[in-house]
Design brief:
The chain has one domain (about 5-240): Rossmann fold (3-Layer(aba) Sandwich). The protein contains 9 helices and 7 strands. The chain has helices spanning about 10-25, 35-50, 65-75, 95-100, 100-130, 150-170, 200-215, 225-235, 235-240, and strands at about 5, 25-30, 55, 80-85, 130-135, 175-180, 220. It has a 7-stranded parallel sheet, with helices on both faces. The chain starts with a strand and ends in a 5-residue tail after the last helix. It binds NADP nicotinamide-adenine-dinucleotide phosphate (NAP). NADP nicotinamide-adenine-dinucleotide phosphate (NAP) binds near residues 37, 61, 88 and 138.
Length: about 240
C-alpha cells in the first residue's frame, strides 16, 4: 500500500486527492495548521477506507520545524512513496504593493517554505532512490499579471525549482510533478465571481492522482489551461503591458 505525506492536507484540492488515496487503502500522514479541520479530515478519510492515518499540526512556514516533522512522518509511515505539497495563500495584491513585509510573508508561504521542504525531502528520497514529489503551483506562475504578480512570482519560483530538481533526481528514480491548476472553486477563491472557466477540486483531483501515479512532469488542471497559458505567454510584451487580465 502507498505511503503518502500531504503537506497542507486541509486544502480543498489536497482533501479531494486524499479521499481518492484513502479509498485505495493508502497510509496517510496529514500536515496542517488548523486542528479542527485536520481532525475532521482524519475522520472522513477513515470512513473513506484508509486504515492508517496520522495527523500533525504545524504552520509550514516554521522552517526550523520541518526536519522534526519529516522525521516523525518517516518514523510513522516508513519509506514514503508520495509527498504532496499543497498549501498556499492567495495574497491581497494591493496590500503587498503598499507593504514590503506582506510581500515577503506571501513569498515565504508560497515559495520559500516550499523550497525549504523540497530541499530536505529530496535529500531523504535520493538516499532511497525512489518516490514521487508533487507540488501544487499555479497557472499564475506562467506569466506575471498586474492583479496577482506577488503570488504568481512565488509560484514561478517553485516551478523553476521543480524543473531543476526533476532533472537532478531523474537518475535517482524520483519523479517530480508540477501541478498547475487554473481557477478552482475552493475556500481560497470564495470571494471570486465564478464563470465557465472555473472547476472544482472533485473534478481535478482524479487527474492529479493519475499524473502522480504516472510520474508526469507537469500538468495543467483542467487541461485547457495549457492552451490558455500558451496564448498568454506568447502575447508580445508591448501589448501585454497594456492589457488587464
Ligand atoms: N483554488 C485555486 O483557484 C488555485 C489555483 C491555482 C493554484 N492553487 C493552489 O492550490 C493549492 C491548494 O489551495 P486550495 O485551492 O485547495 O485552497 P484552500 O482550500 O484555501 O487551501 C489552502 C491551504 O493552505 C493552508 N496553508 C496556508 N498557509 C499555510 C501554512 N503556513 N502552514 C500550513 N498550512 C497553510 C491552508 O490552511 P488553513 O486551512 O489553516 O488556512 C489551507 O488548508 C495552493 O497551493 C494554491 O495556491 C489554487
Amino acid at each position: 500500500m502507498k505511503k503518502i505525506l500531504i503537506l497542507g492536507a486541509t486544502s480543498a484540492i489536497a482533501e479531494s486527492c486524499a479521499k481518492i488515496w484513502a479509498r485505495k487503502g493508502a497510509s496517510l500522514f496529514l500536515v496542517g495548521r488548523n486542528e479542527e479541520k485536520l481532525n475532521k479530515l482524519n475522520s472522513d478519510l477513515k470512513l473513506n477506507g484508509s486504515k492508517e492515518i496520522f495527523s500533525y499540526l504545524m504552520n509550514l512556514n516554521t522552517i526550523e520545524e520541518h526536519k522534526k516533522m519529516l522525521d516523525i512522518a518517516q518514523n510513522k509511515l516508513g519509506d514514503l512513496n508520495i509527498i504532496l505539497i499543497a498549501y498556499g495563500n492567495l495574497p491581497n495584491q494591493e496590500n503587498c504593493e503598499e507593504d514590503v513585509s506582506s510581500t515577503l510573508d506571501e513569498i515565504k508561504t508560497n515559495a520559500i517554505s516550499t523550497i525549504a521542504l523540497l530541499t530536505e525531502i529530496s535529500k531523504r528520497l535520493s538516499k532511497k532512490k525512489s518516490g514521487t514529489i508533487a507540488v501544487i503551483t499555479s497557472v499564475a506562475g506562467d506569466r506575471g499579471r498586474a492583479s496577482n504578480y506577488v503570488y504568481g512570482s512565488a509560484k514561478a519560483m517553485v516551478s523553476t525549482f521543480l524543473s531543476g530538481l526533476r532533472q537532478r533526481l531523474d537518475k535517482s528514480n524520483i519523479s517530480v510533478v508540477d501541478i498547475k491548476p487554473g481557477f478552482i472553486d475552493t475556500p481560497m477563491t470564495k470571494n471570486y465571481k465564478k464563470n465557465f472557466l472555473w472547476s472544482s477540486p472533485e473534478k481535478i483531483s482524479p487527474k492529479i492522482v493519475k499524473a502522480i501515479d504516472n510520474g508526469e512532469s507537469e500538468i495543467y488542471v483542467p487541461s485547457f489551461w495549457k492552451i490558455i497559458m500558451l496564448v498568454i505567454k506568447y502575447i508580445p510584451g508591448f501589448i501585454y503591458k497594456k492589457i488587464r487580465l
